[in-house]
Amino acid sequence: xxxxxxxxxxxxxxxxxxxxxxxxxxxxxxxxxxxxxxxxxxxxxxxxxxxxxxxxxxxxxxxxxxxxxxxxxxxxxxxxxxxxxxxxxxxxxxxxxxxxxxxxx
Length: 105
Fold this sequence. Notes:
Layout: H1 2-19, H2 30-48, H3 51-71, H4 79-103
Helix pairs in contact: 1-2, 2-3, 3-4
């Protein structure tokens, strides 16, 4: 968890700094936060091989890309639908690990 948090915060800081010059990536935008979380998941998956990160990393990166494309007016996005998929996908990604942890505790 600490590795994911550190990687996400570093990515968020870098993207937020870029956002000072390119407004669609301002530090509090959904795309910036999801890109940072996705980067944290990819880093965590590479180091710890967490199953949920293999699912949530690409999920966060795709959602961030959709939000960024909507921000720069390249496509229309149903925000509530994207957030629903992000939340459901994240919950589903954690289910196998929670079940596995309950069996061995």
